[in-house]
Amino acid sequence: MTHATEITGTCDPRFAAVCDGFASNFAAGHEIGASVAVTLNGRSVVDLWAGHADKAKSRAWHRNSIVNVYSTTKGLGAICANLLVERGQLDLDAPVASYWPEFAQAGKGNLPVRYCLSHQAGLPAIKKPLAAADLFDWHKMCAELAAQEPWWPPGSAHGYHAFTYGWLVGELVRRVSGRNIGRYFREEIAHPLALDAFIGCGPELDERIAELNPAPPPAAGTADRLANMLADKESLAGKTFGNPPALAPGMVNSRAWRGAEICSANGHTNARALARFYAALAAWTRGEAFGGVQLMSKAGMARTRAEQAAGIDRVLGLSNRIALGFMLPSPMRRFSDNPQAFGHAGAGGSIGFCDPENGVSFAYTMNQMHSGGPGGDPRWWPMIGAMYAAIGVPFTPPTTGAGTSVG
Fold it and tell me: Could you give the residue numbers annotated as active site?
């Protein structure tokens, strides 16, 4: 296939159709800049990038370009907490308050750590009105969550803790390790695995960061799920996504956002690093080292990816499946036919996941957000389908209707 947009990088001939799928998204006008990567049994077989780092197309997307990946960050934060569990420093079934005493307020004295990772804590939102600047006041956000009464009895249901996950998990990591989540991830995960990935980054990286562009309005007659959820500012969904207003125009490209350490939403990375991250998790799941590094045991990974909650999500109103900080394939996020695959997607279209049983990991990052369907971003399917076809494994993309992706 001849590609009108120059696709740069490497691609094993066996996976050429992944490159074609990547190029087709540019040809259809769905991309500005993006990267895609695939590993097979820990070996890089696809590492591609193309396009531009800004809407004006004045900066090329380079090999080392990185971009905000919104909730795809949750997988990076999850492994930090799970590593503390692996090392015996954090007990999933101990009360959060045993590590964070202030958290015992509002009847949360016995709420277990496990629920913070599995979106069962009943704390997806803060009722008290907050300002945009509060996003960057770590201690204020933690104090507000400590004081917040759960929206439902913890453990009785699950609901997507879209932003609050970042402070719940991040504060547990800080209290136990003595390090902010960004530093802990950098020192304990990113450096050992040589990952070009950050939870919070300094201005020295700004020239490498692609500007994220908001999704265009959904097609006429198509529901805009996020807009509908934000319409009622006092509702659970409205508070979850709009208080504080983390999705305000321009927020994601600000220096304050880039520098914050919110492991639910502000990670910056590219597909190569995400695929490598998930290749390591896949190897550990099989009880193997990755590049000479094995931070998690086979038993630890089995615990990490075990289903914790399933069914209708109280916030999103859709059916999903959740592990300890990772999403499992479901109608909402149908990224594999293997129900044991695990990973996380982000608002607008980024995704990273692995399928250890079939030996693959996949990652995609981009700077043009799109309104996907409840099943995920349609830009994924040609690439994921081609990856599975290359290894002779079935994959059936979802047929769910369109709507704004809020991962």
Answer: 71
